[in-house]
Amino acid sequence: MAGPQAGESFTELGYLRGVLARLARPPQNGEAADPLPGGFLAAAGPDAPPLDQERRRRQALLGRMAAVFYIGSGVLGLVTLPLPAPGSDRIATGAVCAAALVAGIVIWHAPWGTWPRRASLVLVPPAFALIALANTFGGSDVHTYGVFLVVAFVWIGLAQPRATSLFMAPLAAAAYTLPLLVLPGDIGAALASAPTTIGVCVLVGEGIAWGMARLELIERALHLERYRTQQLRELEGMKDAFLSAVSHELRTPLTICRGHLDVLDDQAGEHDVRAVKETLVGELDLMGRLVEDLTTLARVGDRLLLKVESLALDEFVSGVVTMAEPILGDRLAVHAETTGATLKADPQRLTQALLNLLQNAARHAQGGGPVRFFVRAEPAGWRFEVADEGGGLPLGEERFVFEPFRTASPRTGRTGLGLAIVQGVARAHGGEAGVMNRAGRGATFWIRIPR
Questions:
Q1: Which of 64, 127, 339, 446 is least surrounded, with the fewest CB atoms within 10 Å of its CB?
Q2: In terms of pTM, does the model score above 0.70?
Q3: What residue ranges do the domains of the chain occupy?
Q4: Bridge partners (DSSP) listed for residue 309
Q5: CATH topology of domain 304-450
């Protein structure tokens, strides 16, 4: 199909359509689980990534923090090996520290940002086990390795939801007390210190987790506020772009009508009056079509206004072809694979969209060439295609051809809303519309409707 000229179209309306499409998109990547209304996790502007991305980035950072704790603890143990505590096993302690070092390196390279938040809890039991082993072989001071348990609970508080520290407390208590069974000294006194040590660890973890939860709520509120501010700014831009385009489209025929009336002489003959009358009626018809198309475009995306019913696809396609025959005649070639198939759609809206595509192809097919109408079954729906052998679109126009008011010329007698309505119909049905361009050879416009 012949493409619109870039210099003669209204690119601000592309901005309008893009904003509407982005605001209407369904939540993605877990956004539906967010307590804020769906869509508020969308980007609040060009400099604000979605909260889901920020959350994943934070998960990756906390995973690497765990790696640093592992590596740091291992290095600290290896550095202090020359200063052994009484009764320590330096070889076994060195092996435990080396294991912590290796584990830290592996943890550093794990893709924590792509895994669920709870997946990082797998790091806690190995940490407690290494602490218990280091305590077993580290000497007679039973309190030394309680500090490492505190570090572990600091990370739990930062990386996990509230109450996680409470669930981890029994495991930490086992890691603290089991080595006491093989260490020399007063086991009773050592066991008496366990409630205090583990209690402090849980308090630290829960305190940090509470603070992190408050920070996340503040972050969400800030993100929502930024989103709303940006949305208001975009809506203002949409209003200005829409009014600019519509006023231009209405101003031109009004100017033509006024100009013809101004130059019409009081003594004009019947022929001149008839010519002016025909011009005025034509321009008024154009304005009427523009208003009607604007109304359709405004309402077509509202799913509540669709009258969806189960259609026998054979009959539906036959009806569309019958209505297209006055436009295309024997130029229309139909290729339909619809035997016995059904489709749930609004027959009036879908017919309107398909006729828009067929009329567009009829205008642009070179030399009265054929226009092919395909109906193809897909796993998730039905795909309607209209292909011609016209000149195709200029390279790059594929991105803008569905924008409102994009026409090859401002004075073609068309409103430039036909393809925008096509896309609106498709999206209202939960589908999509697009174009496969063959520059210089033709184009294929398609609509995909879910089953």
A1: 339
A2: no
A3: 51-223, 304-450
A4: 345
A5: Heat Shock Protein 90 (3.30.565)
